[in-house]
Fold each of these.
Amino acid sequence: MNDKELLPWLEKAKLGDESAFQLVYQATHQDVYRTVAFLIYNKQDIEDIVNEVYMRMWRSMDKYDPNRPFRFWLHGITVRLVQDWKRKAWRRIRLFERNRQTTCEPFDWTDNAVLRSETQHELFSLVRQLSYKLRVVVILRYFHDYALEEIADMLQIPVGTVKSRHHLALKELRKRFEMTGGDAYVH
Amino acid sequence: MSIDKELREELRQVADSMRCPPELYGRVQQSYQHYVNEKRGRSPMKKRMLAGIAAVAILIPSAVYASSYLADGIFGSSTTIEQIGGTQEDYQEIEEMLQAAKGKLTEDEFKEYVELTKQLMQLKLKITDKNGVKHEEKLTKEEQQQFEELASKLAPYFEKINGPAKP
């Protein structure tokens, strides 16, 4: 379903129409879930954020400009919530670190499907090792196909910064890819 | 294959293998319900509570009894409520509810409960016309907010009162 078809349903869902909500969810949830899952690895956190994305969707519907693609707006919300979450998580971790001595908590990493993909997709496993700032650019560029200018707009950072992060990310990926003996024809 | 192409291809493949867990739907739907209720100005909890308050407010009675009545403490006198149509039995019912509250709450809790109920009743009286019909739109924004605040403050008391007797 494209953006135009989705709009009337979004309006209805905003007003409290349950079946419209269902439809909007069906049309968008895989995309939202995957976007979050590319950026955050803890399964519980992914679900929390997806839930949060929908809450935000209804509440900020008024700010959505129907002349712009809906998905761009939706991805903007998603990325901002992921970032908010990371900020909070960072604070939580610091408090946590202060309180604990040496124990190393095993994290509840994402489901097996992703882990399997990692072994099958070498490049993807390298993407997962990139720092968040680089990774988010890679995901928006190569998974969602946004132009660098659009990414800058979405992340609310200068285009130059996006360009350098993009460049750095690819450099990192190439370097590591060659080290792991990946395809020689990657240039 | 260039790294661009390969990245696109791999991310697409991996994405296809990632499935949003179906049980997440229930959770998102619940949040949505919450949003809808909030938008309409009342959550299910509030609804239940308002039903309880409505039992008091709509049926506001007109009996004149001795001032030892707890209900007098809230309504002042029966003339306040006569104006919106109520019977002696109704007043008696409210009185019983308050007595039950007194039995189940501690002294301080009961004082607070009566005070809150009193404030809530002021608002309730304001929006109820002489036939006992409510007009919520008569409230100003501040009053609506106050109304909700009172309702949520009263919620725990209602739970206690409707719950089992004090051991």
Amino acid sequence: MDPGLGTTSGGLYLSLSENEQRRYTDLLHTLCQPDSSGKVPVSKVGELFRASQLPAETLHQITELCGAKRLGYFGTRQFFFALKLIAAAQSGLPVRIESIKSELPLPQFMGLKNDSSELRISSHSKSAEISGPQSGMLAVKIPRPTLIKNTKHSEGMTEKQEPWSPPLSPIGSPPHSPGYQSSPLCSFGKQRSSTDHIEVSSETKHSSLTATLKEGVSSSNYGISTSHSHSTALKLQSMDRSTEEISSVYPDDLWRINEEQCEYYTVQFKTLQSDLSSHISGSVAKKFFTKSKLSIPELSHIWELSDVDCDGALTWHEFCAAFHLIVARKNGYPLPETLPPTLQPSMLQMDGASQEPKHNNAFFSASFELPPLSHIQKENSEEINAMESSHMPSADADVSSHERQSDSCKSAVSLTMIPEVKGTPTENLPFLGALAKRGNLKHTDRTQEMDPHHKSWTRPRSYSSTSIDDAMKKSEEPPTPPPRPQKTHSRASSLDLNKLFQQNNQGGKSAWLPPPPALPPRPLPSQVTMYNSGSDGASLQKAGHQSNFADFSKYIEESETSQTQPPIKPIRRKHRPESQNLESLETAASLPSSTSVSGSKPHLPVQKQSSKVKKATQTAIRKNKETNAVLARLNSELQQQLKEVHQERIALESQLEQLRPFSFL
Amino acid sequence: MAVCIAVIAKENYPLYIRSIPAENKLKFHYMVHTSLDVVEEKISTVGKALVDQRELYLGLLYPTEDYKVYGYVTNSKVKFVIVVDSSNTALRDNEIRSMFRKLHNSYTDVMCNPFYNPGDTIQSKSFDTMVSGMMLQAC
């Protein structure tokens, strides 16, 4: 702001009341342990500032005003100045030098930490987090530049540096104040150290929440020795961490599970159910979630939200969603009415691409460390180390965990930084390799599992299954209809015969016979003519039957032209009207003679072709036989119908006669 | 369409009862209570051996001047009772059946929740939503 401020701050006489003096000094000494140069560690200042719950912009201004920014450090004077300004800001006064001239109420800080830990600094630095959206987080940027110096994980941090970003509004408001968040962590640490001094914020809004958390913490104290409580403690810890994460995130992202959270949830899932692809039963999940100390109705509601397929069991994704909801609820966020889209299993499946179920146990411990090291801030990695060392199945892991811890601090900043972190010591490589794997691998194996959950899963209700197969089979029917009978055998045989007549008249004999070779036609006409002449002669012999002869001649011609043998002729003629039967027989009798007579004459010249003619004749005979059979059948059917009709007629007539006497009357 | 919907436990105490309009609550409670007798009567007529054949949907339990009461009982003797307005003549049997089916499905969803103890009052929000949907269809 004012370049002269530095001097101003230096030259301005800061009037502090006795109370203020005392308070400030206390704060200075207890919280912030200035090093030999008289500078207050910026990290502590940052913590304190955050605890004041002022918007970061205000804190920024305060820092500038009190001259620390300009000087680059917080001296005692600057510190006191800052405190006073904080008090002013909290009282609602603008952040100005003038406002602190009067006596102000003591600044309020929430949940000040008594622990000194450089590692908390590192957690601060980490706060600059990974996940972009969380850049809005509360993380105070003041300490950043100095943090780099202080932290032992400078490598990773340098990459993490973020410019002083403008503060976000949620900072001032949310129930999850940093102090609030840190208090349980503090308490955790204190469990170890067996002292518990948590300064609960004076703000009532948060007090209840802190109280509940403290309860949880204290309850976890009892269980700390048992493995049972480990999960609880971890849960709380994770909740705190994720709390912080959530608090810093925009409300939209509240329902988005991060990779770290996901990892942590996965770990917890594994403790309950080793197979990631199967379900956690309802009772097991109930026991686990009850540890979160949420009320039963709320847990019930959370279950309702997260168990999308309503099967009384939780899949991995459902479990993550439920866990996430619990964490959110613990932090004071009201539960949504419906499951947010980002938490739905279908969604989680995509997000969970970084998860690889095929972890080695060695990697488990590593991943175990990750969530604690989540992007979020005030993590006391020492605490975490201590925490997790107690959870490590093997004591050996402690040492390695510490090492890994430190290294994973770098890497944990973001999984996306993996390629950059590859320069780390070799012992980290397997760990990082696992991280890379997790980061890169897709969740192909999950897709299948999640497919049923993708769809709007409704429990299969009883309903009759449509017999699609049956319908398919039916469509295959009907088989091809039986081949149609030959035209010659059809009912309209008479028509065919007419055709025959026409054909005969035309003399195109070959057309009528389908199989006959082309050769026969030649001799046929000659034979036909012979036969015709013969038949004519036969017909002429019977002058008395001229009327019939006309028909017969035709038939005879036909039969001869069809090259049927004489015996067939009479059979054919039987199909004629009954009145002509005798005549036909007679003519048939006469015909053979005539044909034989006529046949003998041309016998010699025809001899050569007789064999072919015979074959053709035989086929024709066969055909004619079939035709005859059909016609005979037809005739019998018609005869039967005629009889029936006759009988009906008789019956009707008798009825009529019966009725007649009545009608006459 | 429904004016009042109630879920009654095996021991004949209500697990869930909700009615609109809100001022006639007592009347509807009483009506549901009286309908329990009819339900008992209906399920007792079928012999023990025929439990499987007993249909879940009981149909119209009894009509009053203003209302008609329909009943449905599950295999675990949990009863659902729906009270509809008599003036709502367009309501067919099929629709009532579908309403009961929905109720039954929602009830099973509630039971699947491990945090729900059978015998507790139903406080599930999804169940409430479903019931509201059913009750407000016609209104």
